[in-house]
Amino acid sequence: MASPSLMDNLFQRSLDDIIKGLRHQQSTESTFISKVIEEIRREIKTTDLQTKSTALQKLTYLNSIHYIDMKDLNSGNEFEVFVRKKAVGVVFRLFEKYPDAARVCFKRLVESLESSDSQILSSVVGVFCELASKDPRSYLPLAPEFYRILVGSRNNWVLIKVLKIFANLAPLEPRLAKRVVEPICDHLRKTGAKSMVFECIRTVATSFTEYESAVKLAAVKIREFLLEDDPNLKYLGLHGLSIMAPKHLWAVLENKDIVIQSLNDEDLNIKLESLCLVMAMVSESNVVEICRVLVNYALKSDLEFCNEILGSILSTCCQNVYEIITDFDWYVSLLGEMSRIPHCQKGEEIENQLIDIGMRVKDVRPELVRVGHHLLIDPALLGNPYLHRMLSAAAWVCGEYVEFSGNPVELLEALLQPRTSLLPSSIRTVYMQSAFKVLFFCVCTYIEQKEDMTLEVSDLTSKGECSESSDLASAKAPVECDQDEGFNPRNSSQSYERPFCC
Amino acid sequence: MIKAVLVINTQGKPRLTKFYGFLTVEKQQELIRSVFGVLCSRAEKVSNFMEVDSIFGPDSRLVYKHYATLYFIFVFDSSENELAMLDLIQVFVETLDKCFRNVCELDIVFNYNKLHSILDEIISGGQVLETSSTEIMRAVEEISKSESASNSISLVPKTVSGWRSR
């Protein structure tokens, strides 16, 4: 490249000039930019402060909009504080895109760690914080430097960044964690700044979970946050608990009362955090009680939070194929209850779960049919669009497991009632198919009973093992009727689908 | 790092928008609209945080403060501390107050340049540079001093546009 001319030296382009220039260059943008970069490269090495600042300003601007290929950024002569800080800030953006450049400038950055100027230190530590979060292992060798800052610095901004760095480094090196946990606890005990307290809590809860005394101390501080009136601190206290929850559920249980109370808070953030914590506390033994409490809150809440609660209950209960549910009869009736809550918009999920449970859990089918029957005979529910999915599930279940129904004829009438015209056609399809299944079942039962009666008349010794009721009108089907006996085409659950479904 | 600094008035009009990362103009406007949508439904005495994963992507947090007719909003990721960010908003507003004497929305509307210079002293490229209001004021005063000084030297203007305007 030709040596810089007098013209280039005398006139430095300002940021405005660059912007105007860029706007005029539609097609040759990249050449324009490379020319500008060359200029900047030269300008940044000068000792003239104004030139340097303008160069940096242009660089920052360009960096935020275009990809830049820069290498000679960190020239050693930058001792002027304002300029240096900005240079460090820009350096980070370039490291993001070109990790190789990090190696080139590394030495300079590390030197800056020893700077006594807190502003420079702040910037540099900030850069290392970002870098360490992306690639912690490469910055492990700098741990002694960070340790020195951790125990020596009094500047909260710097300390917070260093804590974040250690949160990333500690999991990689247990010996490091052992050395660092004491100074962190020290800060936690002594600091007056809430931001520091919270960062210490977060660091301990994330990366120092095996250190019981540290965790206990963090739990004490969390409780202090929870008892504050300031909603920000309360929210952060709950957030801290949710970070602790996976490995230290005892801390959450200790604060159970505050957590449940917070479900009533006027701040949605706080409510949502407490909901997560409540769900974290759910286990086989307390699921019934907790769901009862939550459903009560849901009834009193607004639309958004009500559905958050219902959604949480549904997703927690169905985890690992309904691992925590021992009493499915209770759960099925809970599902029915939830679908009748005015704000409920979780009809589809409830429908899926009802059908899923019906297919998996044989013992619950009688209860399922009972609940379904109850829903189907009520004409008022047909007018409520949010309940349609629930009704669809009820119809399917009652059709599929009609043998458990106490009153199939009433069921049939419910499925065929005139108000079903209010349902969308996809659900009416389910109703019709179920109606056929029920009808078929009724007909079969009737014929079986007829056969039995003729048999009884001709042969006084009863042959039928099945205890059929002689009341033809109600056509009661015995719950434990052996499926394969007599004229009963229901040998597989798919049998009904074949003739009617096309 | 800090992802964005927004100042939006209570009617939804953005007064300052600074995004520290490349985003198309349409995307920026969409983000501003979404943020305002959630913000105006917040009650008064609640916490200053907002869940914004659905707006800004994973690992995004937002703090805001309501001063008179303006919302000051900082969006950042897990490399920043929430309470420290709240403090920083305070520092920003305090600096504006020192600069403009009882700053109000109109000051911000008519002194756009100054607002940007102040912000640039606090945050650059998404990194926090300065957290002391006095220091920032010092830097801003230096800048305005050197700007007025360079304006008075009209012999050889240092900028091309200065040269062209003669």
TrEMBL record, chain A:
Transmembrane segments: none annotated. GO terms for biological process: Golgi to vacuole transport; protein targeting to vacuole. Its main location: membrane. GO terms for cellular component: AP-3 adaptor complex; endosome membrane. Keywords: Membrane, Protein transport, Repeat, Transport. Residues 82-443 form the Clathrin/coatomer adaptor adaptin-like N-terminal domain. It is found in: Endomembrane system. The keyword NADP does not apply. It holds the Pfam family Adaptin_N. Gene3D superfamilies: Leucine-rich Repeat Variant. Residues 474-502 are annotated as: Disordered. PANTHER family: AP-3 COMPLEX SUBUNIT DELTA-1 (PTHR22781:SF12), DELTA ADAPTIN-RELATED (PTHR22781). Belongs to the adaptor complexes large subunit family. This is DELTA ADAPTIN-RELATED.
UniProtKB/TrEMBL annotation, chain B:
GO terms for cellular component: AP-3 adaptor complex; cytoplasmic vesicle membrane; Golgi apparatus. It is found in: Cytoplasmic vesicle membrane; Golgi apparatus. CDD domains: AP3_sigma. It comes from the Eukaryota. One of its GO terms (biological process) is intracellular protein transport. Keywords: Cytoplasmic vesicle, Golgi apparatus, Membrane, Protein transport, Transport. It is a peripheral membrane protein. InterPro entries: AP_complex_ssu, AP_mu_sigma_su, APS3, Clathrin_sm-chain_CS, Longin-like_dom_sf. Residues 1-145 form the AP complex mu/sigma subunit domain. Belongs to the adaptor complexes small subunit family. This is AP complex subunit sigma. It comes from Salix koriyanagi. The lineage of its organism: Eukaryota, Viridiplantae, Streptophyta, Embryophyta, Tracheophyta.
